[in-house]
Amino acid sequence: MKKEIERYRIVEERKNYYVVDIPGQGQVKAVLKGAIRKNHRRLAVGDFVTIDLFDKEKSEAIIRSVEKRTNELPRPLVANIDQVIFINCFIEPELEFSYIDRFLFAASVNDITVRMIFNKIDLLTEEDREDLEAIADEYREIGYDVTCTSMNLPETVADIKEICRGKLTVFAGPSGVGKSSLMSKLFPNQEFITNELSELISRGKNTTTHTTLLTFDDGSGYVADTPGFSMMKMPKVEPDQVLLHFHEIAKMGSQCRFNNCMHEHEPGCAVKEGVENYEISDIRYENYLALLELMREGAKDYKNKDLKYL
Ligand SMILES: Nc1nc2c(ncn2[C@@H]2O[C@H](COP(=O)(O)OP(=O)(O)OP(=O)(O)O)[C@@H](O)[C@H]2O)c(=O)[nH]1
Ligand SMILES: [Mg+2]
Ligand SMILES: [Zn+2]
After folding, report:
1. Could you identify which of 46, 60, 119, 160 might form a hypothetical disulfide with 80, taking C-beta atoms 3.0 to 4.6 angstroms apart as the criterion?
2. How many angstroms does the Cα of residue 200 sit away from the middle of ligand 2?
């Protein structure tokens, strides 16, 4: 007996079929057939589909329709993302502000919500902790939610579970910050490959190109791990639009003398004044200027391999 059912998420791509999650009931193998197969390019984890369950016993289904994506990240391909948890460390690996601000910029351009995590706080001295808190507060003031975590703290697991509830979340960030380690705490029954930092460096860039969505036992959300330095493609943006993606600069910029102020050398610039008064972080401002320059230089720099994917 055929039974039409609601929209569900694809959680895994296999060679000949997709795995579709039916919350509370388990997972089914689903295939694309006929016209719909011709009309659709590769589906991705995160895609919403409707299915016909044609063999309930064997958990097999045919995909009837695919919903238009609200967004996607290219590498590994994940669709309909609710949020990215962007993970960094104060040390091991060392914080890199230019990377952080480029990532936040790219996410903003792609209209993807980012929450930040600073992991490995167990490695920090009291002084380091204070420095990190000050940095966390700066990003909070800009409007980002920031949590400081350690895989060794029980409250970290509870905090991240709460953040992930009911959403499709992607873990992203540099290699070695502990993405897979945190995943293994969230999903203790799954296996994850984690690596010592020295191995990561000697091994070079991780080349994994696909990912699986993991589900919590109570069906309250999906999480994808990704390999370091891979998620966000550097977008092309008109130079005069760059400031829109540095939210605190855009906000303060409304008080500049000229309403088309780019906050470089213009007189009466409220942003430059803000930097001098420590109301705007000088590091963020420098990173804004660097991105502005990059967008001006345009296509030439997209050939730069390091910048292609963050
Ligand atoms: N002290 C400490 N070490 C951690 C923590 N989280 C992860 N690590 C260690 O950091 C190393 C790298 O962790 P991974 O989980 O492999 O890092 P990753 O972000 O998944 O790295 P890629 O997969 O290469 O992108 C491992 O040796 C972990 O044991 C933490 O909170 N504290
Ligand atoms: Mg990993
Ligand atoms: Zn200005």
Report:
1. 46
2. 10
Start-end of CATH 2.40.50.140 domains in the chain: 3-68
pLDDT band at 229 (very low <50, low <70, confident <90, very high): low
Categorize the per-residue pLDDT at 307 as very low, low, confident or very high, splitting at 50, 70 and 90. Answer: very low
Mean pLDDT of the chain: 88
Tell me which of 129, 194, 205 to substitute to probe ligand 1's pocket, judged by most ligand atoms within 8 Å of the beta carbon: 194
Using a 6 Å cutoff on CB, does residue 119 contact ligand 1?
Answer: yes
User: What amino acid occupies position 58?
Assistant: K
Task: Tell me the fold of 3-68.
Answer: OB fold (Dihydrolipoamide Acetyltransferase, E2P) (2.40.50)
Give distance in angstroms: CA of 139 to centre of ligand 3. 21
Ligand 1 pocket, residue 192 CB under 6 Å: no
For residue 231, the model assigns a pLDDT of 64
Does residue 80's CB lie within 6 angstroms of at least one atom of ligand 1? no
Query: 207 falls in which pLDDT band (50, 70, 90)?
Result: very low
Q: Can you tell me the mean pLDDT for 32-61?
A: 86
Say which CATH architecture domain 239-308 belongs to.
Orthogonal Bundle (1.10)
Please tell me if the CB atom of residue 274 comes closer than 6 angstroms to any atom of ligand 1: no
Homologous superfamily assigned to 73-224: P-loop containing nucleotide triphosphate hydrolases (3.40.50.300)
Alpha carbon distance 158, 140 (integer Å): 20
